[in-house]
């Protein structure tokens, strides 16, 4: 997933090889990770696709099924991975992930501690941020989930950057061998205040801690405990609002709608335009035409469904000795 | 009576109170933590000049001074002669050189320097911020706002200051001489105390400039200069564009260099961030100087015009001019008279509170980043394409730029286009869909809200930023089937 000095992840020249992980894109909300094998076949509602047809094609290419419907083959990125990974636990999404990575001041070379690993959604993005010289130490008290996470990291190719250990951070704290080495610590635990003293020992001075909690009571207790060793304690909520875009042809009398939302059917064109026109020289274009012909207007409005809450993000810096 | 004797009488009173909190046990456990941290600091003292993650402020480096917990944010470049003004007094910044980032300083009036806050006093202050609320029924029903509750006059306070009374002593005197303080509800008392502390005993936090702090400081003070990109919008751009080591990121940065700097920070010295532009002259990326980048990182920040990066078009007059013309070898950053960076070249004449770092005669100039991209690099990009794109172009139509710049990306490369206004992005998205140039197109508006979390006082902040811009994201695909 991540580029290295010798191999570019993305390039006009980069072709799909046997063993690659690709993201099969049907629609923005229908995507799937697939490992390419010589004899593999992908079956979906459009028919079947032979992997052998894919090998040698560039990433981003369109590939066709036996019925002539197409899908796109995309290079995996942590964002796409977050949308397609199997959920063993509730995961963090792009809004929280991007804010956490920025606010924890994670840059290449950093050492980041994380608990719990969960489904590895954030871990993958942290791995990207610390590459190539940093490291992510991730802890989860559930053995099965730790195993699944390790498998996922192998699949996506970030296993050299992430170490998963089975450990109960609330009960035992972080391991002593990591004391004073962490640039940042991330906590996604039911009782993060129990882990705060240990996190304080792990952090370098002026290092940043983040705690993610869905409930305000958890946040209050965490902040109480943070006040002894940490400064600049700030709590945020981050959300995203998405918009849909539509083109309307506004004419005298009739209003024609052409829906340009994310409704692509594999292979089929968007719904055909229906003209209702009284003009002879009706020109179909997106630009504003002369006053006699129709004008088309592209309009945007927020989508009606949105996520209301994921969790509160509390950040704090380890106090510095003078 | 003499305010001084009153203060000393008060001191005895307060000491008796705090003794309850600082029991011997607490002191001992604190000392062991202190000892561990001191040893660790000696072990971790790896602040070589070219350390990409420096923990100590060095001479000539750029720092962010945070006065009174975020009330005031000022960028400065540290040197022995640098001066910083708080209120009406100038203070020397010399004690900050060599101090670890995150150290807290307070003013020392007599010496006109910022002296570092010793470990224990700062702990005492924090323990007074109570976790248990004393609900004894006090409220404000009898308090009259007639400006007569404080018995100390302005002259008496000034006299105390001149005699060298410490900030804490003045605050104690103010409390002692306030006829209404005891009647206040406990939380009101704390609020009063905090207000006086900010005025008479201001604290300065030494912070390291990072994409996050630079963006926040600018968003608070000069948001127009960064195109109103809020910190969560910036973080979204970096994530959506999959910025990581060894990637070649194309940026159209018309927000002073904030985006270029943030990308360079995440690249960490590998790959490239190429700032591109229409026409001949590159846009200024002045802000990059504030990040304290090592040379290794600065080398990766380059620029090249759209024409140079595009495959040659036969009948374009612009291309012919470009090939023959003289291109600037470096971005021309005009050093303004003030050596601090917040007050850059575009300083206006408007009246502003004077909170700049006064420059001394010998201005330390930072080496300028942003050299022109080498021919080899340009060839490599033409062959491979860029791995992602971030556009933050103020006052430009995003579609006009996107249609020229998107073909420079590899297939399956993600892109993120930021704009302050929704409509141009909607048109751009529509056109990209019509032209089948991209998939997974999405217009997103980031939303951010900060909370105050204190015992019995938890609620969102009263003020909030309602707007941080819009982002159009997508993935480039091949237009040929």
UniProtKB/TrEMBL annotation, chain A:
Keywords: Methyltransferase, Nucleus, S-adenosyl-L-methionine, Transferase, tRNA processing. The keyword Chloroplast does not apply. One of its GO terms (molecular function) is tRNA (adenine(58)-N1)-methyltransferase activity. It catalyses: adenosine(58) in tRNA + S-adenosyl-L-methionine = N(1)-methyladenosine(58) in tRNA + S-adenosyl-L-homocysteine + H(+). Signal peptide: none annotated. It is found in: Nucleus. Its EC number is 2.1.1.220. Residues 256-295 are annotated as: Disordered. This is tRNA (adenine(58)-N(1))-methyltransferase. It comes from Raphanus sativus (Radish).
Automatic annotation (TrEMBL), chain B:
Substrate-binding subunit of tRNA (adenine-N1-)-methyltransferase, which catalyzes the formation of N1-methyladenine at position 58 (m1A58) in initiator methionyl-tRNA. The gene is LOC108846999. Belongs to the TRM6/GCD10 family. InterPro entries: TRM6 (IPR017423). It comes from the Eukaryota. One of its GO terms (biological process) is tRNA methylation. PANTHER family: TRANSLATION INITIATION FACTOR EIF3-RELATED, TRNA (ADENINE(58)-N(1))-METHYLTRANSFERASE NON-CATALYTIC SUBUNIT TRM6. The keyword Kinase does not apply. It is found in: Nucleus. This is tRNA (adenine(58)-N(1))-methyltransferase non-catalytic subunit TRM6. Keywords: Nucleus, tRNA processing.
């Amino acid at each position: 997933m991540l580029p290295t000095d010798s191999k570019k992840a993305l390039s006009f020249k980069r072709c799909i090889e046997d063993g690659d992980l690709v993201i099969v894109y049907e629609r923005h909300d229908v995507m799937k990770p697939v490992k390419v094998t010589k004899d593999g076949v992908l079956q979906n509602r459009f028919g079947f696709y032979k992997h052998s047809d894919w090998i040698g094609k560039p990433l981003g290419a369109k590939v066709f099924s036996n019925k002539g419907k197409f899908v796109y083959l995309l290079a995996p990125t942590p964002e796409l991975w977050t949308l397609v990974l199997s959920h063993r636990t509730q995961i963090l999404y792009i809004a929280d992930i991007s804010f956490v990575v920025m606010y924890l001041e994670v840059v290449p070379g950093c050492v980041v501690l994380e608990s719990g690993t969960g489904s590895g959604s954030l871990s993958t993005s942290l791995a990207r941020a610390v590459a190539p010289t940093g490291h992510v130490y991730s802890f989860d008290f559930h053995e099965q989930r730790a195993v699944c996470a390790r498998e996922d990291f192998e699949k996506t190719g970030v296993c050299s950057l992430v170490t998963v250990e089975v450990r109960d951070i609330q009960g035992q704290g972080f391991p002593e061998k990591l004391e004073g080495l962490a640039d940042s610590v991330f906590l996604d635990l039911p009782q993060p205040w129990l882990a705060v003293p240990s996190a304080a020992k792990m952090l370098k001075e002026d290092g940043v801690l983040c705690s993610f909690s869905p409930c305000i009571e958890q946040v209050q207790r965490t902040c109480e405990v943070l006040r002894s060793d940490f400064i600049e304690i700030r709590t945020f909520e981050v959300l995203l609002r998405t918009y849909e875009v539509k083109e309307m042809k506004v004419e005298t009398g009739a209003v024609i709608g052409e829906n340009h939302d994310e409704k692509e059917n594999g292979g089929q064109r968007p719904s055909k335009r229906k003209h209702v026109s009284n003009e002879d020289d009706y020109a179909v274009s997106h630009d504003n035409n002369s006053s006699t012909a129709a004008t088309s207007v592209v309009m945007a409005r927020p989508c009606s469904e949105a996520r209301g809450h994921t969790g509160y993000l509390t950040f704090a810096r380890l106090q510095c000795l003078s | 009576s003499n305010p001084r004797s009153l203060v000393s009488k008060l001191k005895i009173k307060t000491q008796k109170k705090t003794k309850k909190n600082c029991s011997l046990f607490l002191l001992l456990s604190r000392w062991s933590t202190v000892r561990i941290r001191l040893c660790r600091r000696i072990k971790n003292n790896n602040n070589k000049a070219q350390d990409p993650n420096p923990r100590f402020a060095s001479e000539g480096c750029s720092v962010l001074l945070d006065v009174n917990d975020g009330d005031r944010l000022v960028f400065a470049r540290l040197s022995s002669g640098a001066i910083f003004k708080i209120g009406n007094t100038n203070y020397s910044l010399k004690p900050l050189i060599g101090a670890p980032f995150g150290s807290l300083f307070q003013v020392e009036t007599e010496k006109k320097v910022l002296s570092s806050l010793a470990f224990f006093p700062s702990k005492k202050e924090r323990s007074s911020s109570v976790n248990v609320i004393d609900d004894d029924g006090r409220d404000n029903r009898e308090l009259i706002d007639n400006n007569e509750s404080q018995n100390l006059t302005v002259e008496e306070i000034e006299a105390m200051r001149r005699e060298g009374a410490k900030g804490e002593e003045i605050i104690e005197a103010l409390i002692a001489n306030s006829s209404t303080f005891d009647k206040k509800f406990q939380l009101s008392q704390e609020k009063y105390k905090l207000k006086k502390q900010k005025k008479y005993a201001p604290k300065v936090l030494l912070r390291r400039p990072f994409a996050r702090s630079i963006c926040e400081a600018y968003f608070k003070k000069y948001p127009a200069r960064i195109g109103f990109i809020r910190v969560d919008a910036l973080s979204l751009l970096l994530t959506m564009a999959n910025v990581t080591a060894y990637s070649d990121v194309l940026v159209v940065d018309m927000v002073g260099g904030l985006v270029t700097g943030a990308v360079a920070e995440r690249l960490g010295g590998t790959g490239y961030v190429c700032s591109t532009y229409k026409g001949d002259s590159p846009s200024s990326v002045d802000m990059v100087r504030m990040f304290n980048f090592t040379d290794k990182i600065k080398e990766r920040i380059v620029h090249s015009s759209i024409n140079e990066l595009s495959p040659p078009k036969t009948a374009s007059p612009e291309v012919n001019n470009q090939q023959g013309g003289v291109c600037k070898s470096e971005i021309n950053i005009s050093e303004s008279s003030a050596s601090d960076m917040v007050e850059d070249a575009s300083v206006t004449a408007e009246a502003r509170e004077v909170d700049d770092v006064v420059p001394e005669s010998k201005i330390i100039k930072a080496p300028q980043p942003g050299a022109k991209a080498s021919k080899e690099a340009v060839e490599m990009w033409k062959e491979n394409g860029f791995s992602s794109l971030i556009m933050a172009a103020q006052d430009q139509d995003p579609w006009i730029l996107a249609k020229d710049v998107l073909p420079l990306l590899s297939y399956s490369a993600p892109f993120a286009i930021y704009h302050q206004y929704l409509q141009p992005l909607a048109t751009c998205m529509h056109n990209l869909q019509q032209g089948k140039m991209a998939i997974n197109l999405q217009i997103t508006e980031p939303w951010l809200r900060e909370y105050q979390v204190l015992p019995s006082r938890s609620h969102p902040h009263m003020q909030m930023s309602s707007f941080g811009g819009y982002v159009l994201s997508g993935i480039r695909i091949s237009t040929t089937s």
